[in-house]
Design brief:
Elements lengths: L10 H13 L4 H28 L3 H7 L6 H13 L4 H16 L3
Helix pairs in contact: 2-3, 4-5
């Protein structure tokens, strides 16, 4: 592989993929996806560095392009909101207790 392109995998990552390929411990499709994701992550980091240099801020770029999945707590609260209106009256009242309990959990 030539080093002409500014985004190339580090040698350690290439060695890891090579080992996986020859050991047949990983499906080829999975390795291609990993390579694709690694390239996208490197491109995002390069863009972040440029935005940081030009404007002094860039953290929004990472959070916009690589949002974190919701926590189990957030998913549970969202699910509770979805089902709340379909609960019988006695359970509807208890849903507020469940919500308070969920909100008290650490993220």
């Amino acid at each position: 592989m030539t080093q002409e392109h500014p985004i190339t995998p580090p040698p350690e990552l290439l060695k890891h993929w090579e080992d996986q390929h020859f050991d047949e411990s990983e499906n080829y499709d999975v390795m291609l996806i990993q390579a694709y994701q690694a390239g996208a992550d490197q491109e995002l980091e390069a863009c972040y560095q440029e935005v940081q240099k030009l404007y002094g801020v860039g953290s929004w770029l990472r959070s916009l392009r690589r949002p974190k999945p919701p926590s189990l707590k957030e998913e549970a609260i969202d699910t509770l909101h979805l089902i709340r209106d379909h609960l019988p009256a006695d359970l509807y009242e208890k849903s507020f207790l469940i919500r308070r309990a969920l909100e008290s959990l650490p993220d």
